[in-house]
Amino acid sequence: MPELPEVEVVRLGLHNHAVGRTFGSVSVRHPRAVRRHLPGAADLAGALAGSRIAAARRRGKYLWLDLTRTPGGESASAPEDVALVIHLGMSGQMLVCDPGAPDEVHLRVRAELDDGRELRFVDQRTFGGWFLDDYVVDPAQQAAEPGAAQLIPSTISHIGPDPFDPHFDPDRVVAVWRSRHTEIKRALLDQNVVSGVGNIYADEALWRSKIHGARMTDELSRPKLRGLLDAASEVMAQALEQGGTSFDRLYVNVNGQSGYFERSLNAYGREGQPCRRCGRIMRREQFMNRSSFSCPKCQVRPRGI
Ligand SMILES: [Zn+2]
């Protein structure tokens, strides 16, 4: 599944190439891609046609477009009462193409834009999809700024701010972690407290902080937990920097594999290779039905596990 940096690359691409455009006709090529839109494909296509893309937004790994109805043209108006939520799933891609471009094998949704180009959703494994969602007042923003009433799609409202969000409060995250008795890697992956960190960047942050993922949150010091959060932010910022440099074209894309950052990974996928800090052979363990990679010397496993 794409993690925060990959999703941000897609968001930036949409910001640069699709925001400000108005949808024309929309055709759904595979019903699974709109299965989360319960009123069905025709309803989705009808609602999108004539809607203007006002903004491309993201929280953690979740991506959506703010839509406005602008019958009079470019005049700014309040957001419509729905957002287009884009689930990238495992392999979803958002492409901005010239209309003559040949159809991709796994093309799922084709949406015409008013500049003559097309926004296409391509998804080989069809875990992703598009759906319209109602807005609610953003609880994270309200907590940080009482009285503010920024809107967020309701299905994303329970997601915690990510480290790049202006409302992100690391001290709050550390306090929540310390109040619980759970493995730190599980806590890091819990999108309700801090969002955007998936399996890859969790392993990288734990390696940088020399913490084994099975350590308990209430047994780690505040500075140690704060350092882990900072490490997660740093590693994602670096991935974003690398992903961003290769990205300035009419083609927005995520491959779900974090390929562009792979060479810089210190933990994830490095089983059997020497630790880049101490030289010990890196190990792989199973955790939450996924592989975790760590150094046996730098990241000592807690006793009894
Ligand atoms: Zn090591």
Describe the protein in words.
With 305 residues, the chain is of the alpha+beta class. It has two domains: 4-137, MutM-like, N-terminal (N-terminal domain of MutM-like DNA repair proteins, Alpha-Beta Barrel); 160-294, Helicase, Ruva Protein, domain 3, CATH 1.10.8.50. 26% of the residues lie in helices and 23% in strands. It contains seven helices and eleven strands. The protein has helices at residues 4-17, 41-48, 139-144, 170-178, 184-189, 199-209, 222-245, and strands at 23-28, 51-59, 62-69, 82-87, 92-97, 107-113, 118-123, 129-137, 151-153, 283-287, 290-294. It has a five-stranded antiparallel beta sheet with strand order 2-3-4-8-9. It has a four-stranded antiparallel beta sheet with strand order 1-6-7-5, covered by helices on one side. Strands 10-11 form a two-stranded antiparallel ribbon. A hairpin with a 2-residue loop joins strand 10 (283-287) and strand 11. Helix 4 (170-178) packs across helix 7 (222-245). The longest helix has 24 residues, at 222-245. It is globular and about 60 Å long. The relative contact order is 0.15. Zinc ion (ZN) is lined by residues 275, 277-278, 280, 295, 297-298.
